[in-house]
Design a protein that fits this description.
The protein is mainly beta and 438 residues long. The protein has one domain: Beta-galactosidase, Chain A, domain 5 (Distorted Sandwich). It is 7% helix and 35% strand. The strands form four sheets. It has a ten-stranded antiparallel sheet, covered by helices on one side. Strands 1, 2, 3, 4, 5, 6, 13 and 19 form an eight-stranded antiparallel sheet that branches. It has a two-stranded antiparallel ribbon with strand order 7-8. The protein is globular and about 65 Å long.
C-alpha cells in the first residue's frame, strides 16, 4: 500500500484541526449581505451559464454555475459545469473549485434512467430498448434539449428550473409485475407490440442562504404513459461526473452510502478487491458519498429513511460485510470482485468506473448519482419490493397523481472522520435548501 494512503487519515486530521482553529464565523446578528442569493449570467469554462452565489452556514461563499441551453454553447444545457466553496485554515480563506470532468458525461445534475430488464418469449432477459430496437436503454440526459427558467427569488432563496423530455420503451398492452418481480407474461418479439413513451421531466435547483447544500427536485410526468405496467425503469438523477478534489483529479479513496444500512469501504484507495462493511443500521437519511483525498462529494435526501420517496434495488450483500458475505469471496453473481456486485449497489457510483480487468487498480473517474429500484411504472399489483431476500419496502410505482417526485441535497466540502455526507444525513435537521418554489 502506498505511503500516501497509509498517512491519509493523519493528514486529514491535521488539516481539519487547522480548519477548526481558523473556522469562519458569521457575524451576530447576521447582516443582510449574508442572507441573499444572487443570480448572474456569466462565462465559466468558456460556457455561458446562470451563476448562483450565496453564503453558507459559516458565512463562506458557495457558487453553482448551470450551463445555459443555446446562447452559443455547444450541445445542450441544464446542468452544473462548475461549483465552488470556501474553506478556512492557517493560510486564510481558500476557494475550492469543482469543475465538470472533460468527458462525454462531464457535468452534474442531469437526468438518467435505466429501463428494467424484462423476460421475452425466447427466454432471454434484456431491456425492450436493446432487445427489440437496438438502442441505448439509458441515454444521458445532457444530450437532450432543455427549457430553462430563472424562478423569482423567494426571500433568502432562488431557483432555476429545467424541463426536458426523456423516453422509455414499454408495452402497449399492460403486463403486470408479479410479487416476485417478474412479468406476468413473457414479452413478444414483435416491434409493433411496443411504444416509445415520452416522460417529461422537471428538474429544479434551489439555493438558499445560510445552508451548505443546494436542493435538486425531480418530477417525472407519467401522464403520457397513461397506464401502469407498460414501462419499467429506475431513477438515477442527479447524475454526472465532477472533478471535486480541487482540480487534483486524484483516485477515489473511499465510498460510503446509506440505505437501510450504512456502507463504507475499509481501505484506500478503492479497488474491486477492497473490503467493506454494510451492516450498521442507518438511523438517518439515505445518502451516497465519494471521497478523494481530503475532498468529498455527496448526495442525501432531506427526509429520513422511513419517509424516503424512492425504494432501493435488491442486494444480497446488504446487511453483511466483505469478510462474512459469501464466505469472504465477494460478489456471488458471476463477477469476480470483493466489492458488492455492480448491479446490486443502491446508487450509481464507482462500480462502473473501476477497471474491469483488474482487481487492484483504482480510478480517478468520479461519477456519482442517485439510484432506485427499477420497478417504477409498475401498477398497484406490486405493493412491496425486496431489498434483500429477508426484507422489503412498501412501494408505489405509478402514483395516482401520475407524477414521481423526490428531492436530493448536493453537498461538497472537506471530508471528516465519519464522512461529511453521512454526518449531514444523520443530523437532526438537514442543512439543505428548504424553500419550495411553485
Amino acid at each position: 500500500m502506498p505511503r500516501m494512503f497509509l498517512n491519509l487519515g493523519a493528514t486529514i486530521c491535521a488539516l481539519l484541526a487547522s480548519v477548526a482553529a481558523a473556522r469562519a464565523a458569521c457575524p451576530s446578528p447576521i447582516t443582510p449581505a449574508f442572507t441573499t442569493v444572487t443570480h448572474s449570467v456569466a462565462t465559466v469554462l468558456g460556457l455561458k451559464v446562470d451563476k448562483y452565489a450565496w453564503f453558507d452556514s459559516r458565512c463562506l461563499q458557495r457558487t453553482v454555475s448551470l450551463k445555459q441551453e443555446g446562447a452559443g454553447n455547444p450541445g445542450h444545457g441544464g446542468y452544473a459545469v462548475q461549483m465552488t466553496y470556501q474553506v478556512t485554515g492557517g493560510a486564510g480563506t481558500t476557494t475550492v473549485i469543482v469543475n465538470k470532468e472533460t468527458s462525454s458525461d462531464g457535468g452534474f445534475g442531469y437526468f438518467v434512467s435505466h429501463e428494467r430488464y424484462r423476460t421475452f418469449t425466447d427466454n432471454s432477459s434484456d431491456t425492450i430498448a436493446n432487445k427489440i430496437f437496438h438502442v441505448d436503454d439509458s441515454p444521458l440526459g445532457l444530450d437532450f434539449p432543455v427549457v430553462g427558467a430563472v424562478l423569482k427569488p423567494n426571500g433568502d432563496a432562488a431557483a432555476q428550473r429545467y424541463v426536458t423530455t426523456y423516453h422509455h420503451y414499454g408495452t402497449i398492452t399492460p403486463d403486470p409485475v408479479n410479487a416476485d418481480g417478474n412479468d406476468t407474461h413473457p414479452l413478444p418479439l414483435t416491434p409493433s407490440s411496443y411504444a416509445n413513451y415520452p416522460l417529461p421531466v422537471t428538474m429544479t435547483w434551489v439555493f438558499q442562504a445560510q445552508t451548505d447544500a443546494p436542493r435538486y427536485d425531480v418530477d417525472v410526468n407519467l401522464t403520457q404513459v397513461a397506464k401502469a405496467d407498460r414501462v419499467g425503469f429506475d431513477l438515477r438523477a442527479p447524475y454526472g461526473v465532477m472533478v471535486f478534489d480541487n482540480k487534483l483529479d486524484g483516485v477515489v479513496s473511499k465510498v460510503q452510502w446509506g440505505d437501510r444500512f450504512l456502507f463504507a469501504t475499509t481501505a484506500a484507495p478503492v479497488t474491486r478487491d477492497t473490503g467493506w462493511t454494510w451492516n450498521a443500521r442507518n438511523a438517518g437519511r439515505r445518502f451516497n458519498a465519494m471521497i478523494a483525498g481530503l475532498y468529498e462529494m455527496g448526495l442525501y435526501e432531506p427526509v429520513k429513511f422511513a419517509q424516503s420517496a424512492l425504494d432501493d434495488t435488491f442486494s444480497e450483500e446488504r446487511g453483511s460485510t466483505s469478510s462474512a458475505f459469501n464466505k469472504g469471496k465477494g460478489c456471488a453473481e458471476g463477477e469476480t470482485q470483493l466489492l458488492p456486485c455492480d448491479w446490486e449497489w443502491p446508487y450509481q457510483g464507482l462500480q462502473y468506473s473501476l477497471p474491469t480487468n483488474s482487481l487492484t487498480t483504482p480510478t480517478n473517474f468520479k461519477k456519482i448519482a442517485w439510484g432506485s429500484t427499477g420497478f417504477y411504472g409498475a401498477g398497484p399489483g406490486l405493493t412491496r419490493v425486496y431489498d434483500t431476500s429477508n426484507s422489503s419496502e412498501a412501494f408505489v410505482g405509478f402514483p395516482a397523481s401520475e407524477h414521481l417526485k423526490y428531492s436530493i441535497c448536493i453537498l461538497l466540502g472537506l471530508t471528516t472522520a465519519n464522512g461529511l455526507t453521512q454526518t449531514a444525513a444523520e443530523a437532526a435537521s438537514p442543512n439543505c435548501a428548504s424553500t419550495n418554489f411553485p
